[in-house]
Amino acid sequence: MADITLDGIGHAYGGAPRSEADYALKPIHHVWESGKAYALLGPSGCGKTTLLNIISGLVIPSHGRLLFGDRDVTRLPTEQRNIAQVFQFPVIYDTMTVAENLAFPLKNRGMARPQIEKRVGEIAAMLDLVPDLGRRARGLTADAKQKISLGRGLVRSDVSAVLFDEPLTVIDPALKWELRSKLKAVHRALDLLMIYVTHDQVEALTFADKVVVMNDGRAVQIGTPTELFERPEHTFVGYFIGSPGMNLLRGEVSGAEARVDGHVLPLGAAYPNLAGGASVKLGIRPDYATLTQGEGLPVTVTRIDDLGRKLLAHVSLGGAGAQSLVASVPRGMGVDLGPARLRLDPAKTHVYHDERRVEGRSLTAGRAA
Amino acid sequence: MDTRAFANRAWLFVVPVMIVVLFSSLTPMMTVVNYSFQDTMGQNNFFWNGVGWFQNLLDPTTAVGQRFQGSLLRNLLFSAVVLAIEVPLGIAVSLCIPKSGWRVGAALVLIALPLLIPYNVVGVIWQLFSRTDIGLLGVGLTAAGVPFNVTQDAASAWFVIIVMDVWHWTSMLALLCYAGLKAIPDAYYQAARIDGANRWSVFRNIELPKLRKVLVIGMLLRFMGSFMIYTEPFTVTGGGPGEATSFLSIDLVKMALGQVDLGNAAAYSLVYNLITLTVCWVFFTYTTHADQKDAA
Amino acid sequence: MSSSSVLSAPLGAASAAAAPTARRPSGTTVGIALYVLFLFVPIYWLVNVSFKTNTDILSGLSLWPQHPTLDNYRRIFVDPEWHASFVNSILYVGINTIVSVAVALPAAYAFSRYRFVGDKPLFFWLLSNLMAPPAVYAMPFFNLYSATGLFDSIWAVALAHCLFNVPLAVWILEGFISGVPREIDETAAIDGYSFPRFFVKIFLPLIANGIGVAAFFCFMFSWVEQLLATTLTTVDAKPIAGMMSRAYSAAGLDWGLLAAAGVLTMIPGAIVIWFVRNHIAKGFALGRV
């Protein structure tokens, strides 16, 4: 068990990339710490599966080095890396029983029979597969099959990491939750490095200690779920994480104030590093943009979405051509289409220049009220 | 309810097929059935003969019965031998077909060619190839000291006919299996690598199980094909030497069109057809059963 | 359905080619090369003989023509009877292919989409015709077509070949049609398409591959079948095989002519394969993998 280090790992299919756009995965430095659970989150085609396949050895990267501990495994074939991988669709060996399926990776590595049986028993117990051990794997349901794939990944005790490539795609929504908690439990019990690829933010945020958000072949932010939510480093993260995503408003910043569609908004920090009147984006999550009955920006409510647990209002900042955003409606407050007042929490309003978050210089606490 | 409503329309869709196939199948079959229960003294005077022809045919002590039994056993042996060679060879060839690049298309075109050669030309090719005076194979074997003569020696005749069938039809199994292999998702191969499986294990545990369906189809087609084979061996050996390569179809055509022994030939046809039908039925129930089991 | 499907092509290539050892590709290449050699040596021998004079052929074995000649081919090209036989063969194969696919299409749709009284026995009965030995039908066909005046016409052969090609086409098309989601039919109905319009405008393009495959197999089995084709014709509709059998009689065997005719019969097949080369693999799965 060791850390896995990506040392400038990048990949371009078909060899030499001529420009940044040719990379399926742009060079990245990162250390996956042993014993942690990571999620690789991003939309389809963002390079997350490429990264996963580089770690497992199914793809040899065109650039950089991959280290397991101190060992350079960049060019080592899959079977010589201690890696387990679970795929999107359940991969089971049709002709074998469940027990034989689970034993297969151990048998191939020449483990002694009693040890295999012991280990298979442990894993089957962990995944509730014990009653099915003697059955043929072919006739089982999709989620049972995926549990077998999972079990084959977990059965080897010597693995450096277990990789998951959207493993819950084919699972019934009702069973997804159960399997995911099973995974978390397994992670806690086995203390393995797990990397979980998904495009589903709920899966990523509930499973992982740390989430790597990827877009367009680039890792745009690596952080805990809270960090991703509270301080998205990139507009993409703000927009991709959260439902609905972060509001992004075009505007200008000078000092500790922003100008959006003629309104002046106070900010939680000063931005002396941005030239006065610099064109930026302001990001604020709908949770921190609330309609109020008191003071606030004059806005127009154009649509109300009742999500059951909460009410969301789509509001426009002014007349025609003005930007709009999504705001939350406090519990118990009546709201109608038409004029309303909006309060944006300055401490939670982030400033993005060139799509990246700009760190401001903090003000005194009093200003934020 | 709605399935019932749809039923009327569905039958309408089937009508054209019914007309065409009834005309080319049922009408001729009626003639055969008719002949099989009647006898004639010539002059188109037929009289009822009951199951006489069938008793004759199925009794191995009669001349016809002996002929039928001989042809049936020869034919079953032939089918068994060609299946035993073509199935493993077809699988092996399918595994050798390139996976990408221009070579895929080239290999597939070359492999498929024997399938589109008219049966009598297949016979001509092998007749020519195996002749001991002008054929490469015949001359070569003779030069190597192997006693080889298709028209005189039964073993030589069988050898050529079997090699010819392998030459002619292995490609079909190879192409079927290739299609089956293509349908296996990459994840299976990747998982096998991660599980540390060797090449044999990948074949045994992934490829072969996934080929089960196409192999069943391929084996059925090959069994039927070899069980009703006529033109190719007839061109090469004419059923000889003696009766050595006289398979069911060859024997039947000789009886029906050569000797115009209508009653015996009709009974022969019906029993022959019944055997193929039984095999077909077993296959049909097996596959529908397997499909249901897979769906469950 | 995510990035893995996008990446599967290059991945597949990499994993398949580089899988166990570096030696494997050459092993398979040798295997396929040996098999292709096995297929082509006898064919080469036919081609070789077709370019020889009959004296050359009978004067002993030579691996290539000592006095290459096109004379055998010339004899075929100048003989109107040979022309007619090629035209006959192509005509009955063409008619059979069109008729088989045309009548099979609606039936395959019905078997794929509906359950109706007697559907299973009917399907089995159809398939059973695919499995019927042509030899069984040779005699009754002879009688039937003599009685209906179809004997010795290309229609006799075209119809006789329907016996196995129609069931085959139904079976292949049923497989492909079942691969098209039923929702498409329903959506079209909701969008106000009449059934015939839906079938022609929307459905046929969707199963174009299947139609191609079915047509390919009908062509193939009609082109190669010779027992019925020669039994049901004498003079007017004589197919190539009928002409070729003439080379056997007369004064010994006219090997040069026979070989040249044989080579010519391989050309249509080769052309058809060339056109469908990118679909062969899928086609041979008959829509059932």
How does this model look, in words?
The complex is a heterotrimer of chains A (369), B (296) and C (289). Chain A is an alpha+beta fold and 369 residues long. Chain A folds into two domains: 4-238, P-loop containing nucleotide triphosphate hydrolases (Rossmann fold, 3-Layer(aba) Sandwich), CATH 3.40.50.300; 247-368, Nucleic acid-binding proteins (OB fold (Dihydrolipoamide Acetyltransferase, E2P)), CATH 2.40.50.140. Chain A is 23% helix and 33% strand. Chain A is built from eight helices and 23 strands. Chain A has helices at 48-56, 98-108, 113-126, 142-154, 173-190, 201-207, 225-230, 235-240, and strands spanning 4-11, 25-32, 37-41, 63-68, 71-72, 83-86, 161-165, 193-198, 210-215, 218-223, 247-254, 257-260, 263-266, 269-270, 278-284, 289-292, 297-306, 311-316, 324-329, 338-344, 350-353, 356-358, 361-362. Chain A has a six-stranded mixed beta sheet, sandwiched between helices. In chain A, strands 13-12-11-15-21-22 form a six-stranded antiparallel beta sheet. In chain A, a hairpin with a 2-residue loop joins strand 12 (257-260) and strand 13. The longest helix of chain A is centred in the middle third of the chain and has 18 residues, at 173-190. Chain B has 296 residues and is mostly helical. Chain B has two domains: 1-30, no CATH class; 73-260, MetI-like fold. Chain B contains twelve helices and two strands, in the order H-E-E-H-H-H-H-H-H-H-H-H-H-H. A two-stranded antiparallel ribbon of chain B has the order 1-2. In chain B, a hairpin with a 5-residue loop joins strand 1 (38-40) and strand 2 (46-48). In chain B, helix 7 packs across helix 9 (199-227) and helix 9 runs antiparallel to helix 12. Chain B is globular and about 75 Å long. Chain C folds into two domains: 3-50, no CATH class; 77-284, Orthogonal Bundle (MetI-like fold). Chain C contains 15 helices and no strands. Chain C has helices at 3-18, 24-50, 54-58, 71-78, 80-113, 119-130, 134-148, 154-178, 182-190, 195-206, 208-224, 227-231, 240-246, 255-275, 280-284. In chain C, helix 5 (80-113) packs antiparallel against helix 13. The longest helix of chain C is centred in the middle third of the chain and has 34 residues, at 80-113. The model of chain C is unreliable at 1-24 (pLDDT under 50). The chains are: A alpha+beta (369), B mainly alpha (296), C mainly alpha (289). Chains B and C meet through helix 1, helix 3, helix 4, helix 5 and helix 6 of B and helix 1, helix 2, helix 5, helix 6 and helix 7 of C. Chain B: It is a multi-pass membrane protein. Chain B: InterPro entries: MetI-like, MetI-like_sf, Sugar_ABC_transporter.
